[in-house]
Specification:
The complex is a heterotrimer. Chain B is 78% helix and 0% strand. By secondary structure, chain B is mostly helical. In chain B, helix 6 packs across helix 8. The longest helix of chain B has 36 residues. The two termini of chain C are 29 Å apart. The chains are: A alpha/beta, B mainly alpha, C mainly alpha. Chains in contact: A-B, A-C, B-C.
């Protein structure tokens, strides 16, 4: 499998009045073709920002200050805005957390699916209509030709997320990034949406990145898992390896939680750090049972456990 | 939708009656009640107690001819309403020879032009200004626009009216200072009135477009490969202009009210001038009717705005449909 | 049940900003306000205006009706900074007294409006049910009707004078405050810490005093800051129509109008009043903006 997306030492900072928030502070990972990767972390760990940074969808006071994002052989951080627009929606599809707000409330849902097709020159008006209807059908919306004319508020939350998936799929992207796609939905709908994502991933042969705070969800869905903490990567490993022998204390905590109940990350004692003043050394040390003076002072570099398994911890073999 | 319409019309009617009741009672309860003064003056003029029932001023006779002698106030209101139902408002105290409806019919078109054209003009100017300021936020375009609109909000239209008269009429002699007739007469009053709504609209559009541009669905547009033009003009702008309708109602009401002093300053024989003149001379029949008419116009405008809102915004439309209308 | 809130107000943004230095609610408000230079400048200017208005008799070099026919139509000089009018009255002094008139009317009417509106709104919101319904229907009717026209009617009925203007403006000015107060009361009434205080046996007046009033301060101050310049405009507009304060008491509206009539020969008669009026209104509005941003932070 060849590499589709290679993120190297990416840093995205937010320059706020009360200080610089180092939301993403030097992370690296790869996504291979047809592979699905789960990015797991607490809210504020920088997982969403890191994925939005990939296609430079960071607005406001956020700025990508360093790093490289090589997608399909091109460094996206060096492209001009126009070239990037050709990639967004065309090669990279996005699904966002909140379907309630992610669709334009005063535009019918069909045209919102058809838009990327028209913008990327994939279809003319008539073709885009037909394609949108067939996409609606594909994502499991009954009476698609009628639903095409529905406004978002006329659809349920689950339906809206299906529409969002159809939007992301419309141009047959090589990479689909789903940012907490089920967080805003109720439990049964969550299962349906994840099931749909699984089928779409297989049917379209895309790479997918699932951003979630739900470790169990990531484990079910992904081939590999990237655990993020406080703007950094804590551990990267194939899901199976992860489930059997996690090395980072944070990952171990996540896994234990996931085994007890379907894991919510907030059960690990302590609070995520204030990202304007991140802890020195290893950022997890204030909450870490293994923390030593070394952890407080020095940043742990990457340790390769195996080809596919790397961890950022001084005491990974404790 | 139909239900909604009828309910609103009902509300307007109730409000108008409430205004009528308040105005009628105010007139009668106020110290120095007009009617007492009239009686008192008759008494003094004739000097005899007997003649006070015979010698009445013309105005009092006019009033009693219509409402009867010593009629309780609530009954006067009913009498007024009965006449109003057939648009008969009778003569005014100051102009007993003509009827109020005749005077208003003549005055209304002038006031309407005076209030409506600044509104239209303000939308045409204010919306692009607001968009420009929002898109080039914190640039000099934004700062200049915001400062000018701040002035527009702060400086009342009567001050601007005096300034434009001084500048365009007196100094440059481009337009007539006062009166009404050809279009030239309307230029300065409209110019004086347009500043405030332009300022309000520009600021509103700026804030709401900035807010919309920060919404999730705009991020979706970018994630689909849209550029800024598409995000603004196909998506955000439409949504930020919808609520603009709601402030257009109050803006129009403001303009209607400011005709009161604009017509006074420019000496334009419109509704506002009628109203102010009536207030100055305690011409009660005229005060009552013109008050009611102003209230009616403003409420009607608000109703039209709400209907327009429902027509434009599918969510609102659906919510009315849901209520079985 | 949530624990009693010791400070007596709901947790605000400032309380949540985790390990960052904790600052009080008012501290945070002041911090946001003082970071807005224009607003601070406006506050300074407003304070100066209030002082000048309060001490007008001491500050003004001449009386507002001190006629001096020998010195009519004077251009600005050291003796008359802003010149004199058609009967030789000092325009600078008349401006100071106009300021006094405008501020007296604006503050007086605002205080009455706040008192009436606050009471009606608080009662409606706190009592709920039929009381709320009746009061709010009444408020709606008054809201639908333009206050300025109502003020004109009242002045015409009651006769001119500064007290009349108070009443005329307050008669409609309370409506906005009633709505604001009611919304505040409703939003706070059902918060857990108020409920728990009630459950612990706090009486209604106590609950209102201890919890509801402190929370309403922010929005109230903002509303007042925006109302004052509006009322200054109303006052001068009424005077312009001959329905304001009784001459010879000066009013900005009248000064500006007279100035515009004499503009060609004596431009300073217009420029001074118009410029100071605009400046005063600008200061109040920027102050209101600053307060609004300080009390309702957007980020």
């Amino acid at each position: 499998m060849s590499t589709l997306l290679d993120v190297r030492n990416l840093k995205t900072y937010f320059y706020r009045r009360d200080g610089v928030v180092r939301a993403v502070d030097g992370i690296s990972y790869v996504v291979r073709e047809r592979e699905s990767v789960g990015v797991v972390g607490e809210s504020g760990s920088g997982k969403s920002v890191s994925m939005l940074s990939v296609v430079r969808l960071i607005g406001g006071r956020g700025k990508i200050v360093a790093g490289k994002v090589v997608f399909n052989g091109r460094n996206l951080l060096e492209l001009d805005e126009r070239a990037l627009q050709e990639i967004r929606g065309n090669d990279v599809g996005f699904i966002f957390q909140n379907p309630q707000t992610s669709l334009n409330p005063t535009m019918r849902s069909g045209p919102q699916i058809a838009e990327p097709l028209l913008w990327h020159g994939r279809a003319d008006r008539k073709q885009s209509f037909e394609r949108a209807v067939s996409l609606l059908e594909e994502v499991g919306i009954p009476a698609p030709a009628l639903r095409y004319r529905n406004y978002p508020f006329e659809l349920s939350g689950g339906m809206k997320q299906r529409v969002m998936i159809a939007v992301a799929l419309s141009c047959e992207p090589k990479l689909m990034i789903a940012d907490e796609p089920t967080t805003a939905l109720d439990v049964t709908t969550q299962a349906q949406i994840m099931d749909l994502m699984n089928r779409m991933k297989a049917a379209h042969g895309m790479s997918t990145v699932l951003i979630t705070h739900d470790f169990g969800l990531a484990a079910e869905f992904s081939d590999r898992i990237v655990v993020m903490y406080a703007g950094r990567v804590a551990e990267i490993a194939p899901t199976r390896v992860f489930l059997n022998s996690p090395r980072h204390p944070y990952s171990i905590g996540l896994l234990e939680n996931a085994k007890m109940v379907r894991g919510r990350l907030d059960t690990i004692p302590g609070q995520p750090p204030d990202m304007t003043r991140p802890p020195s050394g290893c950022r997890f040390h204030p909450r870490c049972p293994r923390a030593t003076d070394q952890c407080r002072e020095e940043d742990p570099g990457m340790t390769r456990i195996s080809d596919d398994h790397s961890v950022f911890c001084w005491h990974h073999d404790a | 939708m139909v239900m909604f319409f009828f309910r609103r019309v009902g509300q307007i009617f109730v409000s108008l009656v409430a205004i009528l009741v308040i105005t009628f009672y105010l007139m009668h309860a106020a110290p120095g009640d007009f009617f007492n003064i009239e009686r008192l003056m008759n008494q003094q003029v004739t000097g005899s107690r007997l003649s006070q029932f015979e010698e009445k001023s013309q105005t009092l006779m006019l009033w009693e001819e219509r409402y009867g002698e010593n009629t309780p106030v609530w009954k006067q209101i009913l009498i007024y309403l009965r006449h109003a139902a057939v648009l008969d408002f009778g003569p005014s105290f100051r102009y007993p020879d003509t009827t109020i409806q005749e005077m208003m019919k003549r005055a209304f078109p002038r006031t309407f032009v005076l209030a409506f054209s600044p509104m239209l003009l303000a939308l045409l100017i204010g919306i692009p200004m607001g968009i420009g300021a929002a898109l080039y936020r914190n640039s000099w375009i934004d700062r200049v626009t915001m400062f000018v609109s701040m002035l527009g909000i702060c400086i009342p239209s009567y001050v601007i009216a005096l300034l434009v008269i001084v500048f365009f009429a007196v100094t440059l002699q481009l337009f007539p200072t006062s009166g009404w007739g050809t279009w030239e007469y309307a230029v300065l009053p409209v110019m004086a009135m347009v500043f405030q709504p332009v300022a309000g609209i520009a600021r509103y559009v700026r804030v709401s477009l900035i807010k919309e541009m920060g919404e999730d669905y705009v991020r979706t547009v970018f994630s689909k490969g849209g550029n800024r033009n598409k995000a603004v003009f196909r998506h955000a702008l439409r949504n930020s202009l919808i609520p603009l309708l709601t402030i257009s109602g109050p803006q129009f009401a403001n303009l209607m009210v400011s005709t009161a002093f604009i017509e006074e300053i420019f000496n334009i024989p419109g509704l506002g001038k009628l109203f102010v003149a009536a207030a100055g001379t305690r011409d009660y029949p005229m005060i009552i009717t013109s008050t009611l008419f102003f209230g009616f116009l403003i409420m009607l405008m608000n109703l039209l705005v709400d209907i327009g809102y429902a027509l434009i915004d599918p969510r609102i439309r659906a919510s009315y449909r849901g209520k079985g209308g | 049940m949530a624990a009693l809130n010791p400070v007596g107000r709901p947790p605000s943004d400032a309380d949540e900003s985790s390990p960052a230095p904790r600052i009080s609610y008012w501290g945070a408000v002041w911090q946001r306000f003082s970071s807005n230079r224009l607003a601070v400048l406006s506050l300074g200017f407003v304070i100066v205006m209030v002082l000048v208005a309060a001490l007008a008799d001491l500050i003004a070099p001449y009386g507002y009706n001190q006629i001096d026919l020998d010195n009519a139509y004077q251009s600005p000089s050291w003796r008359h900074v802003a010149g004199t009018d058609e009967v030789g009255r000092d325009i600078f002094s008349r401006l100071i007294f106009s300021l006094q008139t405008a501020l007296a009317v604006a503050f007086g009417a605002t205080v009455i409006s706040v008192a009436i509106g606050g009471l009606i709104g608080a009662v409606a919101g706190y009592a709920g049910g039929v009381v709320d319904n009746v009061l709010m229907r009444f408020t709606d009717v008054m809201y639908a009707f333009p206050g300025f026209l109502f003020s004109i009617i009242l002045v015409s009925v009651l006769g001119r004078g500064i007290v009349t203007i108070f009443i005329a403006i307050a008669a409609t000015g309370w409506v906005g405050f009633a709505r604001l107060m009611r919304a505040q009361v409703l939003s706070i009434k059902n918060l857990e810490y108020v409920e728990s205080a009630r459950a612990l046996g706090a009486t209604h007046p106590y609950a209102i005093r201890r919890y509801i009033l402190p929370n309403s301060f922010g929005p109230l101050i903002v509303a007042i800051a925006f109302m004052v310049p509006t009322l200054m405009m109303t006052e001068s507009a009424l005077s312009l129509l001959g329905l304001g304060v009784m001459p010879p008491r000066p009013s900005w509206g009248v000064l500006i109008q007279v100035g515009s009539l004499n503009f060609r020969a004596f431009p300073y008669q217009l420029t001074w009043p118009a410029a100071t009026f605009a400046l005063a209104l600008l200061a109040f509005t920027y102050l209101g903006d600053g307060l609004n941003d300080a009390f309702n932070p957007k980020e």
